[in-house]
Amino acid sequence: VSYMSAQQQSRFARLANAAIHPNWRYNPEETLEVMPLTLGNAAWLFMKEHGEKHVEKSVSAAPDKLGMRNPEQPLYHWCMTIKPHAIHKGLLTESEREADYRTSRWQNDFVVIPRFLGTENLPVRMNRTFTFAPDELKLWMVTQSPALVYSVDGLRNQLWLPDTLGVRVEGTVSNQSIDLLVQSERKEAEIAALLPAGFLPGSVSVNGAPATHSDCLVLDDTPLALVSVPKGQSRVKIQLVPAPPLNGDVTLQTAAGSPGNLLTMKISASADARLLAAITSNHDLVWSSEVHAGEVSIRIPTGVTGGEYQATIHDGTGKKRASATFHLTSGKPKHDRFKTALPLQQHSETKPLDIDFKEDGFKLLGTAETYSIGAGTMHFNPNQATLTLTIDKAPDSRWYQVGGAYELEAKRFLKLKLAGTFGKYNREEMITGVKGLGTNYDRPNCFLGLTFDFGANSGTENVYVSRTLGGIGLAWPTRTSPEPSAWGTKKLADIINVVSSFAVTEKDEEEFWLDLDAVGAPDNWNGKLWLGAMYQDGAPNRVLALTILETSDILPEGAQASKVFPLKGGKTSISKTTMKLPFIAKEITLDGNLDEAEWKNAVEFKELTQLSSPG
């Protein structure tokens, strides 16, 4: 959920040509991938280290190419490190995180680690040095806004940006005040403004009236002012006062409660001291607020992540003055994330049929269905030779299978029709193509496509001897699952092909002919076939309908059989071609015009087969 939340914030970012360095497109030995992106009044360099060692790299770019062009405004630098799956728990839903934040301002389970790097006058070229672990991903975010959008509608953001989720903030800073202009399409939002060194808020107003809610937080040693704004345009003024000196020692004691109960912090300091408190865990800023000497109680959410936590007390400048470490036991989230890994009970059933489609050249002999109870359903319309599989809006598990098949007497060439909701999703959703077919899309047993089980005579009996899977958007040659086990050979497929890209296109339906000999029919095939459709470990709320239209010994005049691309086994062989790509001496402009001299040496690729996402 956390990765999806971050993706939701960044999906409208656009590529920019920012004269980046290093640029691994032109240096085959470079292991750091750098991609410049812009979004509203912010920009970031996507940086991913593909090497196998810890490295230190200097990265630079032209800020004006990233939209940073106001010489009167400084440039603010942030680094946002993306946690790898191995250390990110990902236990809470957005609704539960929102409820926790509204109740006690407690927030954990973040996938992004934000850090403020500093500010500088707008340079001609910006340059910083970063350290990277193998496969580590960081975002170097820059903006000329002194404030960021901290939360929207009661949910703290994964990415700290000045323009996100319908809220935009910009402004200026002086020694007297921070003046911000906020445009918001949301019911409520919180803005976090960087405080100048040595200053704290004296008063905070929104559109000339005292703010309904304001606070301070501290990230590492960086103090920020926090202010709530309503929907519409808001002019925020944060009147600054010097941070008062902190005399004497500060001590901190914590009494860690259990999930659902109170955590107590006992702070000893001068009575008039303005202090900033923070609680962190696994690099998450879990809780932060301005506090005073005495006792502070915080309600611990029931779904808290267990482990070691650090409480820190800072003075008004952000300097840490006291700290304490405590442990919390793991709570229980309201929604059990791990139940989605449990196997579901499987329903399987076969029924005989006897429907002869004489004019279309085939005869239906039976139906078979299998579906995970709580994940989806199958429906047959034998009079139309159609079967339809439907995946529930919220399957009870991520691991399921839904499929059905007709047993029929067929001929070498088979005309089929596919229809469903995949085209709609590819036109309208933010995650499309093969990645839109399920969170497990890259696992070998995730499959969406057709099943072909071919019969052969054994004495006087028909037996099913060979199975082919035909992907229509998602199929892997490394598949290990024997499913479907409700019909046909009931064994691991002998052959895996790609027969169509229907599910990763924007089409609502598609008709095509298949040559069953090219699909994988054995030489002793007797004409009997189980033809089905199956979706395994896929995406929710999807529908796929398969209709048998016609079968023939020869292709009708003008018809052409679809190309079959083999992934595993099969009669069709694809020869491998090695292409040597030339390096170019200087940069080219991707403008649709091939007028640079370097294009004369370009290598042309032909005979491409689409296996996943369009394009």
CA radius of gyration: 30 Å
Main beta-sheet annotation:
9 strands, antiparallel
In percent, how much strand structure appears in the residues?
over 45%
Q: In whole angstroms, how far apart are the ends?
A: 27 Å
Overall residue-averaged pLDDT value: 91
How many beta strands in the DSSP annotation? 37
- By helix and strand content, what is the structural category? mainly beta
Element layout with pairings:
Elements: H1 2-10, E1 14-15, E2 32-39, E3 42-49, E4 55-61, E5 75-82, H2 94-104, E6 112-120, E7 126-132, E8 137-143, E9 147-152, E10 155-161, E11 163-164, E12 167-173, E13 177-194, E14 199-206, E15 209-210, E16 214-219, E17 222-242, E18 251-255, E19 262-268, E20 275-281, E21 284-291, E22 294-299, E23 307-314, E24 320-328, E25 346-357, E26 362-372, E27 376-381, E28 386-391, E29 401-409, E30 413-420, H3 422-428, E31 447-458, E32 461-474, E33 495-498, E34 509-515, H4 516-519, E35 525-536, E36 543-552, E37 565-568
Parallel strand pairs: 32-33
Antiparallel strand pairs: 1-2, 2-3, 3-8, 4-7, 5-6, 5-8, 9-10, 9-13, 11-12, 12-13, 13-17, 14-15, 14-17, 16-17, 18-19, 19-22, 20-21, 20-23, 23-24, 25-26, 26-29, 27-28, 28-36, 29-35, 30-34, 30-36, 31-32, 31-35, 33-37
